[in-house]
Design goal:
The complex is a heterodimer of chains A (about 280) and B (about 190). Chain A has twelve helices and no strands. Chain A is mostly helical. About 5% of the residues of chain B have low confidence. Classes of the chains: A mainly alpha (about 280), B mainly beta (about 190). At the A-B interface, helix 5, helix 9 and helix 10 of A face helix 2 of B.
């Protein structure tokens, strides 16, 4: 059993998928609990790969900590409504601030002040955008949201593994696996509830992991820019398609296009996987 | 034996003849080498190619101290893609933690050519006490550049998990064996 659980594909793919699928099937119709599938999937992978020891507080551990905070905040926001007028702006700034906190030890080392600001703006902007756009999409068709969470996680995870960090890649893949589980549960159960717990946890993890992989692994900036397109796919009007399977396939296929190109660009930049 | 003594006298190689002095580590002859188990199959070897530091040594009084900084990005295992992986957040996260350091806190001579050096090893920004077992100390004039030189062989062992380097445990071994080849030139 230990040998099985030590396999990277089980840790970052199969285990989070099964856990998330159970949560979505069991609690998918109840809004606050529906999002726990993404949280549980991510935490299972963390437990299997690195555990919950936060000393020393490295950038990766900061991201894990922030994902847990995002899950709690998401649960809170599922109960207490934040005024829509300020919601996206606040979440954008929180995402950007979170990335700057995570990456500051590296960003601060940049000697040219203008470059430090530019890098902070681009990487922080990605994090803020990812968090805000996924939150914005939560009221749309949950099949589309599940598809972009899946494609974003798989696209980023693949790019990170190619770019030399299996750890960041597996954490991203776990979110992707949760997205796939949500997609399957949606198709079987016909619309699981959209939840802030789900979109905020996925937004924070991918929103922080992807820029971190540009700084700490060898994922190129061009991959990051393509991954930024993935969550916007949830806003495409595929909800007009009648059959649930076709809707799921359409959203997933379109979302996987920028995700796949991001992986290919990482491959062009970093070369073959060494593992 | 007689020839050896004559040669030692000619090149000034001796132990105990050096009074208190400061030294800079010679990066061309100072390498931390490590060994770690890979998936239970074999013990993989590697080293760090760039090391700097200073050394204070008084062999007459048997006192000393050492301060070493290793460039974490200079890790070398003979396979570039694996080295990239070792530089990533999975292991040394060199972008965030560019240096590995060792600062001695106590030096205890256990013989004319041997010592135990207690100190703090810092990896990923986390410091833990580690003891270096110095098995050879040889000081004298370097026959090539004539500079006053001291050379050391040392070793230690520690668990990487104690420094938060947890990825791929237990498949990739927890215990890391380190051997150090050190040469230092008098300032």
């Amino acid at each position: 059993m230990d040998e099985l659980l030590a396999h990277p594909a089980i840790q970052g793919g199969v285990a989070p998928f099964l856990v998330a699928f159970f949560f979505f099937m069991a609690f998918g119709k109840f809004r606050p609990l529906a999002g726990l599938g993404v949280v549980a999937a991510f935490l299972v992978t963390v437990a299997l790969i690195v555990g919950f020891n936060f000393d020393p507080l490295t950038s990766t551990r900061k991201i894990i900590l922030l994902a847990m905070v995002a899950a709690c905040l998401g649960l809170l926001l599922d109960f207490i409504k934040l005024p829509e007028k300020y919601r996206l702006g606040v979440l954008f700034l929180l995402g950007m601030g979170a990335l700057i906190w995570v990456a500051w030890p590296v960003l601060a080392r940049e000697e040219v002040w203008a470059e430090r600001v530019l890098r902070s703006a681009i990487l922080g902007g990605f994090a803020g955008w990812y968090v805000a756009i996924l939150d914005y999409s939560r009221k749309r068709d949950s099949i589309g949201v599940a598809a972009v969470v899946a494609a974003g996680g798989i696209g980023f995870g693949g790019a990170a593994v190619i770019g030399a960090s299996a750890l960041l890649g597996q954490l991203g893949m776990a979110v992707g696996a949760a997205g796939m589980a949500a997609l399957l549960a949606n198709v079987i159960r016909h619309q699981i509830a959209g939840s802030t717990t789900s979109t905020l946890t996925a937004g924070v993890t991918i929103g922080l992991l992807a820029p971190a992989s540009v700084l700490y692994a060898k994922v190129p900036l061009s991959s990051l820019l393509l991954l930024a397109l993935v969550p916007a796919v949830a806003l495409l009007p595929f909800d007009r398609l009648r059959h649930v399977w076709i809707r799921a396939a359409a959203w997933l296929l379109v979302a996987m296009v920028p995700a796949a190109v991001a992986m290919w660009l990482a491959f062009e930049s970093a070369g073959a996987v060494p593992f | 034996m007689r020839k050896t003594l004559i040669a030692m006298a000619m090149f000034g190689v001796s132990v105990g003849s050096v009074s208190a002095a400061s030294y800079d580590l010679d990066p061309a002859h100072t390498y931390p080498n490590f060994t770690i188990n890979h998936l239970g199959f074999s013990n993989m070897h590697g080293h760090f190619a760039k090391t700097a530091g200073t050394l204070e040594l008084d062999l007459a009084k048997k006192t000393g101290s050492v301060d070493v900084t290793i460039d974490a990005a200079s890790i070398y295992t003979g396979f570039a893609k694996r080295d990239e992986h070792l530089r990533s957040p999975d292991f040394f996260n060199v972008a965030e933690f560019p240096s590995i350091t060792f600062k001695s806190t106590k030096v205890k001579f256990t013989g004319d050519k041997t010592a135990e050096v207690e100190g703090n090893l810092t990896i990923l920004g986390k410091s833990k006490p580690v003891t270096l077992m110095v098995t050879s100390i040889v000081c004298g004039a370097n026959p090539m550049n004539k500079k006053e030189t001291c050379g050391f062989d040392a070793s230690t062992k520690f668990k990487r998990s104690e420094f938060g380097v947890n990825y791929a445990l237990p498949a990739v071994g927890d215990e890391v064996s380190v051997t150090l080849q050190i040469e230092a030139l008098k300032k």
